[in-house]
Amino acid sequence: MKSAKSEQVQVEWLIGEIRDLDRMIAMHRAAEGGFMADQYEARRLNYLKELISLLATSKYNSTKLETFPLINALTRNNFARRLKTTSVVRREVDPFERTINFYRRKAGVAYKQTVTAAKSVREESPVYRTKAVVQKKVKK
Q1: 77 neighbors 58 (Cβ within 8 angstroms)
Q2: What is the pTM of this model?
Q3: Average predicted confidence (pLDDT) for the chain
C-alpha cells in the first residue's frame, strides 16, 4: 500500500515534468523544430495519462467526488486548446495548481488527525520506586 505522502510527491513530480515539457514544446515550436516538439508532446501525454490514472485511483477518492472534478479540469484544460473549441472559456484556477493544493490539503488533514490521535493517547505517569522499597520486597 502506498502512503499518502508518496502519492503527493508523485503528483507534484508529474506536474513539474509536464510544466517543463510545456516550456520545451513552446521553445521548439518557436524555433520551427516540429519533430522535437512532437517528441515532447508524446512524453507529455504519457505523463498526463499517468497523472490522471493516479488521481482516479487515489486513496483520497473514496466517494469519487474528490478527484474527478480535478480530472475533468485537467482534461478540459489540456485538450480544449487542441480541439480549438469556440465556446466561452471561463477564467479558472490552473488545474495543476488545484491538484497540488488538493493533495497538500489532504496531507495536512491526515497530519492533523495523526497528531490529534497521538495527543489523545495518554501515558500513565511512571511510578518510581525508591531503593528502600525495592529492597524490602526482595528481602520478604
Answers
A1: no
A2: 0.62
A3: 74
